[in-house]
Amino acid sequence: MRIWKWVGLAGIVGAAALGVAAGAATVKRKRREFIDANPDELRDRLHARLAEAQSRRAS
b or e along 17-31 (b: 16 or more beta carbons within 10 Å of the residue's beta carbon)? Predict the structure, then answer.
């Protein structure tokens, strides 16, 4: 019976580690989008996001 407690604990720890690894990969991918982007394209995207946020706030 005690072995199943350890197996369950190992499963929980493994799932948590997998979640952390997936989250780190997502952060790296998003960071890479900004680093590798053309500055003019990045500026246009940021201006579009600002305009969208301002229009939501005004509504």
Answer: eeeeeeeeeeeeeee
10 Å CB burial of residue 42 (0-12, 13-18, 19+) is: middle
> What is the tens place of the pLDDT at every residue in 7-59?
999 999 999 999 999 888 888 887 877 777 788 988 998 999 999 999 998 87
Give pTM, 2 decimals: 0.47
Question: How many whole angstroms separate alpha carbon 43 and alpha carbon 19?
Answer: 32
